[in-house]
Design a protein that fits this description.
The complex is a heterodimer. Chain A contains 16 helices and 19 strands. Chain A is of the alpha/beta class. Chain A folds into 3 domains: 161 residues, 2-Layer Sandwich (Aconitase, domain 3); 103 residues, 3-Layer(aba) Sandwich (Aconitase, Domain 2); 171 residues, Aconitase, domain 3 (2-Layer Sandwich), CATH 3.30.499.10. Chain A has a 5-stranded parallel sheet with strand order 5-4-3-6-7. In chain A, β15, α13 and β16 form a beta-alpha-beta unit. In chain A, α2 packs across α6 and α7 packs parallel to α9. Chain A is globular. By secondary structure, chain B is an alpha/beta fold. Chain B has a 7-stranded mixed sheet. In chain B, β5 and β6 form a beta hairpin.
């Protein structure tokens, strides 16, 4: 057999019916993650056709998007303020009960952001196909799983048939070599990659992130990179599984155990792209040249080094429109721009390592006056682990708000909002107009850049705070 | 779903590049549990001011937009969130086709499943369409061709199975359900 890429192996192993000129492939889905926002209409379509869920044991639901992060609302001490969100949460509870789908519901101790709890529980494993009605499903590709976001109609298809109709995407290798400099994180790396590719540069492709830099990343860091591959338009992001992957999964509650785990590892070792396998396209990135990054515009491709300035692009209407929305001037230095909010959270950067890195920086210090700093762990498990280490107190003592897990301020649909016209340094993934609230101005950055900026009340260089 | 064969309409032009699905349907309208009624929220943050009043110079609020079913968007439309509420809202408003130089994968898939035809054209054709808002176009899905106001015909690509479904007004669920034998055979080969 000719050498194959990781993607080609994943695809071939899940073809129920291969594609033809007239029909797409029927692709089998190993794990279907479901949440409250993109599933109600899919369950309704099953009901309308009198269909059930084909594989309940491969279907797994939680609530995160419209779910409040305020303890009183979450635990029922006060009603959920947004009536429509409360209705959506009840609808998911009802649908899961009716269709027999396992739900980590509102007050469950393992609830959290869907893309954080999949890996945390060990549901996410190399070699699987994983879908969810959410574009950041690409996160799970960090394990060498083919994972991608789907719409609600497709959520219905997977519930009913455990399959999707798919055309085979193209492949794009992004080779990253060299060491990341001090203060440069996986978030900065992926922002730099998106800046290079552009927000549509990955359209139609599955990216495999390769090279010595990627191999040296932890699983948390690989997830940050794969999470944002959708921001370059890619269908999915992948990292080949290796010892780092296997050690992460060992002992997780839903991962295989004992001899089964060793057998699974043996199979997973055959997944990486074969030597000599070719990609439709390749791109090479020098890791050593990357600096801490921040976005200045209204899509994730519009970024500069945090020490840089707002680019000037005379005659570029797109650029001018973005700067008008952001209230920034060409040539202006990013450092020193006053901010009102900092958000540490989201499926991109709300894992324990993210919280630790930010906490190390704020420990013993206080955030600037006039700044609201929201810290939202990615899951209830991460919240407990962080509290066991005292991170909650570090953040609270510094003047930050410590919340229950959820998508929170990443998207304005759960009550956590940035004011109109206010600036927010955010560890999330999208800086689109209005993403964090009507008129909100989002500046995407790493957890340590966010933390440093919270301390100064202005965009700050995290390297000044590193020991 | 209603079959689509021909779409004949004037265009609405939104020249902004990279129009993402958060603009098409802002997140706060995603707490609905139905597909209906989303037209009122379409492009809400560009369409209404803080008091909820229509912004007069936004294209969808202009009288000439009434009855148009073809949206010409700037380069690369539909990036970002997988929310199907974006095509639901566009369809509910009355759009039946979206034209751009590039269309994001998930938005394209979602559109095809909801009677909204995503059409990619080359830079030159796109520039011409952007420059002539209100141009009368005819889209022939059977031939996969677009007729420009000057009579020129431009072909476009549409995934053959999606085209079949749109032409016949059927959805893909029935086809997938009919694969039950193949799916069961595949499942029988899976390790326990």
């Amino acid at each position: 057999m000719s050498p194959r890429t990781l993607f080609e192996k994943l695809w071939a192993a899940h073809e129920v019916v291969p594609e033809t000129a007239d029909t797409p492939a029927v692709l089998y889905i190993d794990l279907h993650l479901v949440h409250e926002v993109t599933s109600p209409q899919a369950f309704a379509s099953l009901r309308a056709r009198n269909l059930g869920v084909r594989r309940r044991e491969r279907t797994f639901a939680t609530m995160d998007h419209s779910t409040p992060t305020d303890s009183a609302q979450l635990f029922g001490k006060v009603p959920i303020r947004m009536a429509s969100a409360a209705n959506q949460i009840r609808e998911l509870e009802k649908n899961c009960a009716e269709f027999g789908v396992e739900l980590l519901g509102l007050t469950h101790e393992r609830r959290g952001i869907v893309h954080i709890i999949g890996p945390e529980l060990g549901l996410t494993q190399p070699g699987k196909t994983i879908v969810c009605g959410d574009s950041h499903t690409s996160t799970h590709g960090a394990f060498g799983a083919l994972a991608f976001g789907i719409g609600t109609t497709e959520v219905g298809h997977v519930l009913a048939t455990q399959c999707l109709l798919q055309r085979k995407p193209r492949t794009l290798a992004i080779n990253v070599d060299g060491s990341l400099a001090r203060g440069v994180t996986a978030k900065d790396l992926v922002l730099a990659i998106i800046g290079r590719l552009g927000v549509g540069g990955g359209t139609g492709s599955v990216i495999e992130f390769r090279g010595s830099t990627i191999r040296a990343l932890s699983m948390d860091e690989r997830m940050t990179v794969c999470n944002m591959s959708i921001e370059a338009g890619a269908r999915a992001g992948l990292v080949a599984p290796d010892e780092t992957t296997f050690e992460f999964l060992r002992g997780r509650p839903r991962a295989p155990a004992g001899a089964d785990f060793e057998r699974a590892v043996a199979a997973w070792r055959s997944l990486p792209s074969d030597p000599g396998a070719t990609f439709d396209r390749e791109l090479t990135i020098d890791a050593a040249g990357i600096q801490p990054m921040i976005t200045y515009g209204t899509n994730p491709g519009m970024s500069v080094p945090v020490t840089g300035s707002v680019p000037s692009r005379a005659g570029d209407a797109v650029h001018a429109k973005a700067l008008a929305y952001m209230g920034l001037t060409p040539g202006q230095s990013m450092l020193g721009q006053k901010i009102e909010y900092v958000f540490l959270g989201s499926c991109t950067n709300a894992r324990l390592s993210d919280l630790r890195a930010a906490a190390a920086l704020v420990k013993g210090r206080h955030i600037a006056k006039g700044v609201t700093f929201l810290v939202v762990p990615g899951s209830q498990q991460i919240k407990r682990e962080a509290e066991a280490e005292g991170l909650d107190r570090v953040f609270s003592d510094a003047g930050a708000e410590w919340r229950e897990s959820g998508c929170s301020m990443c998207l304005g649909m759960n009550g956590d909002l940035v004011d109109k016209g206010a600036y927010c340094v955010s560890t999330s993934n999208r800086n689109f107009e209005g993403r964090q609230g009507v008129g909100a101005r989002t500046l995407l950055a790493s957890p340590i850049t966010a933390a440093a900026s919270a301390l100064e009340g202005r965009i700050a260089d995290p390297r000044a705070y590193l020991g | 779903m209603e079959p689509i064969r021909t779409i004949r309409s004037r265009t609405v032009v939104m020249p902004a590049s990279n129009i993402d699905t958060d603009q098409i349907m802002p997140a706060r309208f995603l707490t609905t549990t139905t597909r209906a009624g989303l037209a009122q929220h379409l492009f809400a943050d560009w369409r209404y001011d803080a008091s909820g009043a229509p912004i007069a110079d936004f294209v969808l609020n202009r009288p000439e937009a009434a009855g148009c079913s073809i949206l010409v968007a700037g380069r690369n439309v539909g990036c970002g969130s997988s929310r199907e509420h974006a095509p639901w809202g566009l369809y509910d408003y009355g759009f039946r086709a979206v034209i751009s130089t590039e269309i994001a994968d998930i938005f394209r898939n979602n559109s095809l499943k909801n009677g909204l035809l995503p059409i990619v054209v080359d830079e030159a054709v796109h520039a011409g369409l952007i420059a002539s808002p209100g141009a009368e176009l005819t889209i022939d899905l059977e031939r996969a061709a677009l007729t420009l106001p000057d009579g020129r015909s431009v072909s476009f690509t549409v995934e053959p199975f999606a085209r079949y479904c749109l032409l016949n007004g059927v959805d893909e669920t029935g086809y997938l359900l009919a694969q039950d034998g193949a799916i069961s055979a595949y499942e029988a080969r899976l390790p326990a």
